[in-house]
UniProtKB/TrEMBL annotation, chain A:
It comes from Parambassis ranga (Indian glassy fish). Belongs to the DDAH family. The gene is ddah1. It comes from the Eukaryota. The active site is at H170, C271. Keywords: Hydrolase. One of its GO terms (cellular component) is mitochondrion. It holds the Pfam family DDAH_eukar. This is N(G),N(G)-dimethylarginine dimethylaminohydrolase 1.
TrEMBL record, chain B:
It comes from Parambassis ranga (Indian glassy fish). InterPro entries: Band_4.1_C, Band_41_domain, Ez/rad/moesin-like, FA, FERM/acyl-CoA-bd_prot_sf, FERM_2, FERM_central, FERM_CS. Residues 1-19, 26-60, 116-130, 138-160, 552-571, 689-713, 773-794 have a biased composition (Basic and acidic residues). Keywords: Actin-binding, Cytoplasm, Cytoskeleton, Phosphoprotein. Residues 1-188, 527-601, 668-845 are annotated as: Disordered. This is Band 4.1-like protein 2 isoform X6. PANTHER family: 4.1 G PROTEIN, BAND 4.1-LIKE PROTEIN 3. It is found in: Cytoplasm, Cytoskeleton. One of its GO terms (molecular function) is structural molecule activity. Residues 206-488 form the FERM domain. Residues 795-808 have a biased composition (Acidic residues). One of its GO terms (biological process) is actomyosin structure organization. PROSITE patterns: FERM_1, FERM_2, FERM_3. One of its GO terms (cellular component) is cytoskeleton.
Amino acid sequence: MAGLMAGFGHYTHAVVRGIPASLAKEALRSSQAEVDLAQALREHEAYVEVLRTRLGLEVVELPADESLPDCVFVEDAAVVCGDTALITRPGAESRRRETEAMKDALKDLNLNIVEMTDENATLDGGDVLFTGREFFVGLSKRTNQRGAEILADAFKDYAVSTVPVMEGLHLKSFCSMGGPGLIIIGSSEPAQKALKIMQQMSDHRYDKLTVADDLAANCVYMNLPNKGHVLLHCTADQFPESVKVFEKLKDHMLIPVSNTEKVKVDGALTCCSVLINKKANL
Amino acid sequence: MTTEAGSEKAEEVKEKAEESAAQTDQSEKATEETQEVTKAESEVNEKEKEKEKEGKEGKGISRYLPTWLKKQKSQSQTSPTKEAPPAEEPDSKVTQEEEAPAPEVNGHAEEVEEKEEVKSEQVREKEESHSNASADTEPVKEEKVEESAEKSPEETKETTEGEGAEEEKKGQQPEGEAEGGEGGEGQTSIFQSPLRLVRKSKMKLVVCHVTLLDGTDFTCEVEKRAKGQYLFFKMCEHLNLLEKDYFGLTYIDTHEQKCWLDPTKEIKRQIRSNNWQFSFNVKFYPPDPSLLTEDITRYLLCLQLREDVASGRLPCSFVTHALLGSYTLQAEFGDYEPDQPRPLDNIGQLTFAPNQNKEMEEKILELHKSHRGMTPAQADAQFLENAKKLSMYGVDLHHAKDSEGVDIMLGVCANGLLVYKDRLRINRFAWPKILKISYKRNNFYIKIRPGETEQFESTVGFKLQNHRSAKRLWKVCVENHSFFRLNAPEPPNKARFLTLGSKFRYSGRTQAQTRLASSLIDRPAPKFERTSSKRISRSLDGAPMISITEAENGREPHLELHSDSKVKEVDVSPGDAEATSLQSPGPSEADLSQDHDKTQDEVLKHQANISQLKRSFMEAPPPSPPQPNQWEKRLTSSPATTIRIQQQQVTTEVEIEETVVVQEVSRAAKPGLVTVTPIPPAEPTTEQETSKQEVKAEEKVVTVGKEEPKKQESVSSESESEEEAEYHPNVSVSISHTQIPEEKEEEEEQEDDKRGEQEVSAPDALSLPAEVSKPEEEANRVEEDAGAEKKTDAEEKEDERETEESTDDPMITPDEAPNGLTLPEEGETGMSAPAEEEEEPKVNGEASLVEVEQRPQVICCSEPPVVKTEMVTISDTFAAQKTEIATKEVPIVHTETKTITYEAAQLDGNDGEPGVLMTAQTITSESLCTTTTTHITKTLKGGLSETRIEKRIVITGDCDIDHDQALAQAIKEAKEQHPDMSVTRVVVHKETELAEEED
């Protein structure tokens, strides 16, 4: 009997979106790096391929929208937990319309759609860390208290704790889940501070896996039938020190995924997909 | 009154210290301090039985003496013949008593209240049974002794018994209580009390209505003065519930707040109305219901949770609502039967969720189908498995405001205290993180252990709507902490130093205890009717009434169940007969007595069943907040309500402040420091004995009194009058004045940090978690690395000072922040002491004055320029030195100052020896009075170390404070804290405003 909070990391579907050409020039970014669009497209294709063929997820691929340069980062547009999907209200004005296509796609997947209509609320999915037991919501440039409240309302079963994000774009810019009860965390001071806060706020115990690079701490964890623990993480080329740490995770199927271009526009691995467990429907 | 009573003497102080330490356990249940003081007296009287000439001090002076130093006047009032026609009959006697000793007692309303309490407890106790020599009756028995001297020698025996082994007493508790139950029924036992005979020929019975978790009403009669536990046990009898510690009774108080009925107190005094209406509720939600032993317990928990969920008090998502609802259907109706006329067609009439709709009902039915084959017990278990994961499971919410006045909510739960803003968790304080919980008026404070990056402990304050809410929250915290985190409940007065505030402690069993007890339950799984199906069937006409019984469970074969007589009874008529008879509003006498008899029988049966559990089957006590609906409705109080005017308005009125300084000194032969702590009493004591060290102690009590505002609120109940109280949540923290616990805590903290640091860098990250996680509490380790200790102490002292001086922390109330300035002085005193004893009082005096000035409430300047000073030195007979008393410079005008010094025998003249200061530590805590404890450990010549503890207590209260009590209490507590030390000096300073007229 699939009960409440069972099966963390079980996914059957993934929603992704194409990269618009406008990404290279117009996507929001915190640094002034040049994006190699072709490389970005190649990387994204490889990413989707891993989800689809290697991991066997049913991938729903939304078409890119040139007017939405950041639209490839679907994670920010929706938070899905169980069979409830919260359509967010992204903190960046230019990204608000990204949710439309996302909402339609999730509706088609028969999820219960909750929309964030409050005009005072902002929330980026990248600020939402679901641990399997509770939510942590980063209060960042993109996400505010009201947004977090609405999330708490949408997922009433879970505790929702807020964590101030001092540095970096999103909460998940320096952390992610690496397994049930395992938080992967960057080694920077703000990251460690945030972890402390999370640990303090939680009734549960989490283990942490500290990696040298904050950006490398953003991984995609799944627990799939026949495959067990799966972790998509950065490549050794990009973050050699951090990868050494991942390689100690003997129980995980480790899949390095190259992400050299999207990262220039603050796109991490989790940003590029919304993972859904359709079988979780009770 | 009698010679017996008058026997008081200041004997060997150390001896007494030990005795009182021994008494600590006994007093576990003592609830009010009056009791304790009385007890202290009784100990002196009964144990020492030494005649001692009374000091020639006049009445005025004797007031300020420790009670054990003077005549036991209050006792002499206990004459049953003095009855006067009372306004409120049960209290009359007490009132009488109060009046008589008036000159001594000062007729403080609160005290009267408390004495009543004591008195009534006594009476009650007698009714209950002779063998029920429970600890909390101790003080009362003292009085009984006197009565019995004139009346029944039997009583005396009882008392002596009671004096005996405390352990046994505890063990007897369950029986005692159960017998108490009988006592209520068979009224004969009531009349065993001579008191009773004099007073009344018949005990008044009152009808109680208890709403059960299944929504039915239970009616029973209890004696008017029955305690909460009596009714509660009757309920548990009725429900056939053994694992009762998770449950409690609630009532609606006069302020429309839901409160927990304190089992140890009289019902009548709690409800304060004629509405004897209660409900039976889950008080402590077990974090893992699967660990409960009996299905019936789980079933009751399910009932509570169903209601919590349906009302919205326990928020959950649509899917969870549906899932929980489906388990409820399975448990109540069994398998989904498509063919039968579906009872569930009427599902709409059942409430599963606050915002139930067709869609949800469809979903519930759909899920119900999938539960085919599940037994009711299994369905309940599944229900609980899911419910327990909900984030608000077991969280008791209270409205509050943070330091900036922002509305927040405080949630008390098994793990600690949660802070919510709207629905978001914005902070969390796990129990191990909390050093102290206190409230003062409408403020609620928690003192937080410093994090690894912080240097100092901090105090976080919250404003509650009024002091009642603050107290209610405080009590809930105390109870939850005790229940979930302690191994055994903390004695109410253990090692607490002169506390005039609430002595409230959790009196039931802790979760650890109840689990142990449950594991010993050895009875066939009781069959019970799922009464809510009855309720359901009422609303669902024609629904098949499936009587579901608990035969499954694997443990108990059905046959066996049938062989049980009780079960049969249930079988024959599924509870209906019984229930109805109980529900009938006006039960006939016959019915009742029948009922009573039955209950009595059942009590015995139960007793037999659980005879192995020599533990108190007492259930959880007092007020904690209510359970309205929905997120908002969970709150205990609406913030909108006007805050009551409280005594804060000091402007025109003055305040009494008393200082009691108790100084203790001990010297150990070991170079290592002598830890003055009662906690591991074995250790220091042994050490001392083996090393044949001499122990010298010095104790000073300084009382400085000033006038204080009269409380504007009428002191209506024992609880209302307590404006503040504190609680040290760690197992050891109750004695946080001492050094060891502090250190322990630090270590704990370090461990915490270490744990925090643990990384999964090892290969098998996923398998690691289990191994990695350490048990969260390793609390009670006592480390005795002297060096470390020394360091710690020093640090602590510094911390303390820092903390206190940091005024920029808005959340440290001025009141709470304990007088930073005095501390350095005390430190100095300690260093230069003991040689300069002569001067100490002076220093102390000044120090306390500084304190006075610092306290913002005290408006010193308002006092007119008249000074009357009185000084007295009292030396006990054995005292070698009779010096003392210092002149008090009393800068406060228009006051009367009195200084009384008590000095015990000085064992040797080591005072002047220069020593090396090893540690010095000052800890200040606060309740109604301020306690400043200074530990000074010095190394003297020859490797001896000497520890001197100086305690300064500032008692602030209005003129009605009973100084004797306060002082006696202080001394007693000091002794209890440091049984291995002796009290050498007591200096009392009292300052009162003349106008108010003392005595």
